[in-house]
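Workshop exercise sheet. Pairs work together: one partner reads the sequence aloud, the other fills in the structure field after running the prediction. Swap roles for the next sheet.
Pair: D.N. / O.F.
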Amino acid sequence: MIKTAGELIATAQLEINCVDANTAKLLYDGSENSVIIDVREVKNYEESSLNDSINISRGLLEMKISKQCPNSDILILTHCGGGAVSYTHLRAHETLRY
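Structure field:
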């Protein structure tokens, strides 16, 4: 049976370590090998983005991740407007062995 988007997001939320903004900043600042990936659409990223973040929209992850993150040991923090896109993005990271 095909899962709905809501079911996929609910499953991902149970399996992925989600942190608040303050914890994410501490992790980023404390790591020598980290990246913040904003997974929103380009238009949203251009309107407002986190300092030092890069934009890789959901549908482009598989094509762009190896160029932006050549080392699979990198700490990857993802950011989106409401959380749902980040969860599905992280599932793709796992598939790509990040």
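Discussion prompt: Residues 84-95 form the longest helix (12 residues). What would you look at next?
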